[in-house]
Design brief:
The structure is a single chain. By secondary structure, this protein is α+β, with helices and mostly antiparallel strands. It folds into three domains: about 120 residues, Outer membrane lipoprotein wza domain like (Outer membrane lipoprotein wza fold like); about 70 residues, 2-Layer Sandwich (wza like fold), CATH 3.30.1950; about 35 residues. The strands form three sheets. A six-stranded mixed sheet has the order 1-10-9-11-7-8, with helices on both faces. Strand 7 and strand 8 form a beta hairpin. The radius of gyration is 25 Å and the shape is elongated.
């Protein structure tokens, strides 16, 4: 459902962009540095639907069960719709809105009643962003430790196809309602330094089609009509020939 919402939004984004000038920020090295500093300072905040993996040192019985064969998006304990998780000994814990560091400190404090000097590590395992458009494997890209750059995300999506517009890659940030749109070019070798922009969970990377792809789509759309007209004209010629 989330991925479908993104595709619908991108269609709307393209229609609006064609109808009027959408506010799009074109980047240079200075702008990239500013964005990267903001991203480094920003900490991910837990929300309903996230999964949290918790590891207790010296008390493995309290850790969330970890099976390396399970898909990353299914690992850990699920944050319910109320923004809570339920843990052994301490029961329900409100986690929505907290950073991973804040939750770690909260759990250490709560478990002090039952464990002497509790030490634990936790991580949200299903932090993700989306790469769509003219890439070989569009879809979800998972973010490890809040660290992933645009070039890494494109690589995980199989790289840009031959029909992708390399000089106009869009990063949409801040949700679907009122996103901040950043335009980046990776057309030339010297542009690749701009691809070092650090992405954030829930970012959307969109690679639009180039003129060749648009031309192919137009041709594919016209060909059935041409074939239909040709078939009709051919039939008329055959009828005329037979009548003579």
């Amino acid at each position: 459902m989330k991925f479908l919402s993104i595709l619908v939004f991108l269609l709307s984004f393209l229609l609006i962009s064609c109808a009027e000038k959408t506010s799009v920020k074109t980047t240079d090295r200075n702008v990239i540095e500013i964005y990267n500093k903001k991203t480094e300072k920003k900490e991910y905040r837990i929300k309903p639907g996230d999964r949290i993996e918790i590891l207790f040192y010296r008390h493995p019985e309290l850790s969330t069960k970890t099976d390396q064969n399970i898909n990353q998006e299914d690992r850990g304990i699920l944050v319910n719709k109320r923004g809570e998780i339920i843990l052994p000994l301490i029961g329900s814990v409100k986690v929505a809105g907290l950073t991973e560091r804040e939750l770690e400190q909260l759990l250490q404090k709560r478990y002090q009643k039952y464990i002497k000097k509790p030490h634990l590590y936790l991580e949200v395992t299903n932090k993700r962003l989306y790469v769509v458009g003219e890439v070989k494997n569009p879809g979800v890209v998972y973010v490890k430790d809040n660290k992933i750059t645009l070039i890494e995300a494109l690589s995980k999506a199989g790289d840009i196809t031959d029909f992708g517009k390399r000089r106009e890659i869009y990063v949409l940030r801040g949700g679907l309602k009122n996103p901040e749109v950043i335009k980046i070019s990776v057309e030339k070798p010297e542009d690749l330094t701009l691809a070092n922009i650090k992405l954030e969970p829930e970012d959307i990377v969109y690679v639009p089609p180039n003129k060749i792809k648009n031309m192919n789509l137009a041709i594919n759309g016209v060909l059935p009509l041409v074939n239909l007209v040709g078939g009709i004209l051919g039939s008329l010629v055959d009828v005329k020939y037979l009548s003579e």
